[in-house]
Amino acid sequence: MHFPADHDPLTPRVLATTAFPRTRTIVALRSDAKSDRYALHRFPDGSVWWRADTFTAPEHPADPEHWVGYGGELSVGAVIGRVPDQRRPVVDWTRGEIVSGVGAVYTDDPMVLGRRAQSLLRLQEELDGLARGPRRAA
Q: Which residue, of 36, 38, 73, 99, has the greatest Cβ tally within 10 A?
């Protein structure tokens, strides 16, 4: 078997990914007994982002997982880069969030509605960027 020069056998590998439409979450099971979760998340301040979190695997299936790290907010392209086999749900769920519009949150707080509107515009720009494909040097 041939490995690339930068191959690190200790770096965790993604073993499998699963999409959960009801929660708009993608779980990537890793070789180091952890899982990465990517969720399209509505934050209380009105912003909407793809959120990354890491959890440990329980020793027994009846035990709960434990949260071990927050990976921050990610762009649509960054999520697809991490779980490329889940491109379709990432794009579909993001489109659905955009279509739901500003009124999908139950508030009349202008700050929250403004942040949501900005987030929806940003998400649309990210989807538009995916549709255009990678930029080429001129």
A: 38
